[in-house]
Specification:
3 domains; cell membrane; five-stranded antiparallel β-sheet; 10% strand; transmembrane; Beta-Lactamase; globular; membrane; alpha+beta
Length: 432
Amino acid sequence: MWHKLFGYLYKNIVPLIPWIILYYLMSILSTELNNSDEESWYQSGVIMAAFLWSPRRHWLLLFIAFFLAEVTANIPALAHEHPVIYTLIFMALTSTKVLIALSVQYFSRKYDELSAIVTWIVSTIILNLIMAFLIYSFVQYYLNVALLDTFWENYSSEVTGILSATPVIMGFLFTHINQKYINLKNVSLGITAIILLIGAAELIFNGTIAHVDKAILHLPPGVSSLLSLCLLIILSIILSQIWGNPGGSIALLIIAAFSGYYTLRETGPFFISSLADEEPLLIAQCFLAIAALMMMFIRVLTSYKDNGKTMWQIQANYHLETGSGKFHWDNLPAWFSAAPHEDMEDIGNVLHHIHTDDRDAAAEHWQQPWDAGGPRVIRFRFKSRQGSWLWITDVSQILRQDPHTRTIVGCWKVSSTANNAPASIMGRVWQS
């Protein structure tokens, strides 16, 4: 009994701890920024990343954990102002992230990274707008307090917090860097890009570029700021291409640190004297969100281009008799096998070489009852004989079915190696 209890805690509770710690760290950062009458909700990006990264079977525990974290992080507000109403608001805000992740699951094309990212962006904007309207209507009805003047400020902070923080977190989680990039040349180029990015950010945000423009260049107002910010994005994209996802996340953290620090000190390209107190930091968050989304799209598109030469070129066809669990393969490459060829003839052995995170879904794909008709598609990681993880797309369809057994015909297609997978922020959102 105790063994099962500890096994359950280790498998389901322990993975939540890093997310909760990260949530509290982002809450502290956001609180420090909000002390200046400017709204920043980076912890929303942590919650969003957790739901995108985690399999759906963990979502209930994640929801409970983040809801309790929201409540405990805001105990001072709850102690003085309508605790029941604020508790319901925190529950609604956490529920919005669940709805966004569900939208990605059900409305994006399965295993299509680009479709998933577009769906995530659109659902983030729309669902947060709907939830913000419902929350503000609820507060106005029950408390008779008009909060329309802060509606757009809080909504924008929520959306930009998600769109800017989530890609940074997911970039560190998706550390799939091709081995050919790990060499002295690329390490040196990456370090050089970081140094250039830090130097450029310091010159831009401390006002040096603006002074040079006034003294020498005499460009139209705002042009120098726009060009300098474009330079930061270019350097960030370069670092992302050299070091992959972690490089992009490092670049965004550098820009976020400089923009936040100097904007709060009332200097830099985002601080304009005619703006309201809360607007410069909001503009900085919008810039970070735009930069993050741009890098995501470029990473995914370049990954598709890099893999396009070999994608779908290697495939193996099979018949599976579910009653006996036996595979019958056609044109199965030797290097495709995770073991000697005869091991690939038993469904148990095949499942053994599928990644543990994908194994249950693959077993259900082949073994659970399903209706005859259109083909089923599933994607999983499979360990080859050489020890590398391959992304396999399985397309299968029932050929014959009777009360005792059925025959499934299908094929495996190699889309890429797992170490060179596209830079998706979607995590394991398609897993059950």
